[in-house]
Specification:
Length: 477
């Protein structure tokens, strides 16, 4: 099995290759009567170890050759002195890599620089290379758990696949994950015009309250929990049903904790579609005032009350199934006066005053949204699945476990999560914008329907706050 060039001598790598050959020879041998999944897993683990070590050797060889060629180049001899040689250790997707690089000093300015670090775009002092940081950003966008993100990326650093307990020694600390996320360039999406503008556009909207931390001290002193309303809209132009499953075509998710929510939604629609060709914009939701009044901002729009919410209000108002059946028949026949009369009579039969007052609020909810309910009963209305969107997009990542967010961090996480759901390749986005503060350039992500302009980010290093990486390093020697 010849997989190495003569340029990469490594006793440890040769040892791994010998061990891998022995494992594969044992698995292949027909006289071996062991039939087990361990035959496969041991083979994968052995090959993974070779690939990891090969990657480290190849990277070190490339850096050494790069440094030697620059050191011997005519331009270097004219412009720079050789000041020192220093080792640097960084953590890469292949594991821990230590290489020797030359420190140069300018003959005229006397300033020092490291050629290979500058050539590769590696910031000073960072323990984790930009590829690891990009992996952290991409993983957290779907996990939203710094601890889980650190575990997943850490195991990948140790090996492509490993059953050794030492794989946990590379777990990345929460603080390091937080520092990486804090320095991701914020995304301001700009949506290119769709090839086809349909006559009807659909918007579903709902909200979720998320706990905040770090709010003004007088609030904390009073022991009050601070929540912020996260508003979310899902914009799409077609619903496709395949059996019992439905999918939304050309879906765009927009979340915000700031004002001008519907103005921003309108901007997205205007960028995406030819507004003159749109005849109707259907807005669905639970009847909250901020949703029902969206029609004053969104032209050509009509509000529909989600069937789930009015039926839920009906169940909470009338506990008896037969009573609900009668009351719902008046809703279906658009008989508002008769509905109010019959439900008022039924409520008079209640003896619990608190129960009566609660039921009256539900009656008021239904009557106030009567027209929106009637529109939702039209056969062409295909319903509102926003409860599922909120559960998946906001509840699961942000409120399923007891946690609180700083307001600025929450804005950042919402932006990253929305971008990922809208098709942004966060791994490439992170790498493409890594040097943005030094170049003032605009990055265009080559995606079918999107391009992105970037805001400036803070440039900070992330010295590792844990010694786990060192334990992992020694375990591989």
């Amino acid at each position: 099995m010849t997989i190495l060039t003569h340029k990469l001598p490594s006793s440890y790598l040769n040892k791994l290759i010998t061990e891998t050959k022995e494992v594969l020879r044992t698995v292949i041998d027909p006289t071996n009567q062991s039939f087990s999944i361990r035959n496969y897993s041991d083979s994968i683990e052995s090959i993974s170890n070779v690939l990891q070590e090969l990657g480290r050797n190849q990277l070190i060889a490339m850096i050494n050759e790069m440094d030697i060629k620059f050191r011997n180049s005519p331009n270097r001899l004219i412009s720079f002195y050789v000041k020192d040689n220093r080792e640097r250790t960084i953590i890469t997707p292949f594991g821990v890599v230590t290489y020797l690089r030359t420190i140069y000093q300018c003959r005229t300015t006397k300033k020092c620089f490291t050629y290979v670090d500058r050539k590769l775009g590696l910031p000073r002092y960072d323990k984790y290379d930009p590829c690891i940081k990009a992996m952290i950003a991409e993983t957290h966008a779907t996990q939203n758990s710094m601890l889980k993100t650190g575990e997943l990326v850490g195991k990948r650093i140790f090996s492509l696949f490993s059953t050794k307990k030492e794989r946990n020694n590379f777990n990345i600390s929460r603080q390091t994950v937080h520092n990486v996320l804090k320095n991701i360039t914020l995304i301001k999406p700009s949506y290119s015009e769709a090839e086809h503008t349909p006559t009807d556009i659909y918007i579903m909207a709902d909200e979720k309250y998320v706990h905040l931390q770090g709010e003004p001290s007088q609030i904390r002193e009073n022991g009050l929990t601070v929540n912020v309303m996260v508003k979310q809209a899902v914009i799409y132009d077609k619903r496709v049903t395949d059996g019992r499953r439905s999918s939304l075509k050309n879906r765009i998710v927009y979340s915000s904790i700031d004002g001008s929510f519907w103005t921003n939604v309108l901007d997205i629609i205007a960028q995406r579609y030819d507004f003159d060709k749109i005849n109707n914009i259907h807005i669905s939701g639970d009847g909250a005032k901020w949703i029902s009044t969206s029609t004053s901002t969104i032209p050509k729009s009509t509000f529909y009350l989600d069937k789930f919410h009015y039926k839920q209000a009906l169940r909470q108002m009338l506990l008896d199934a037969d009573d609900r059946h009668v009351a719902e028949s008046y809703i279906n026949n658009n008989s508002k006066i008769e509905f109010k009369n019959i439900t008022t009579c039924l409520l008079h039969l209640e003896h619990n005053k608190d129960r009566i007052e609660y039921a009256k609020t539900k009656l008021e909810y239904i009557t106030n949204n009567w027209n929106a309910i009637q529109r939702s009963l039209h056969p062409d209305y295909h319903g509102c699945g926003m409860e599922g969107q909120i559960s998946h997009n906001l509840a699961a990542p942000f409120t399923s476990r007891p946690k609180a967010y700083a307001r600025e961090n929450l804005r950042r996480y919402l932006t990253i999560a929305d971008g990922t759901r809208n098709g942004v390749d966060l791994l490439n986005l992170y790498l493409d914008t890594f040097d943005l503060p030094r170049s003032n350039k605009h990055i265009e992500i080559k995606k079918e329907e999107y391009d992105f302009s970037m805001f400036e980010q803070n440039n900070r290093s992330d010295k590792s706050s844990t010694s786990n990486w060192l334990k992992g390093f020694t375990s591989q020697i």
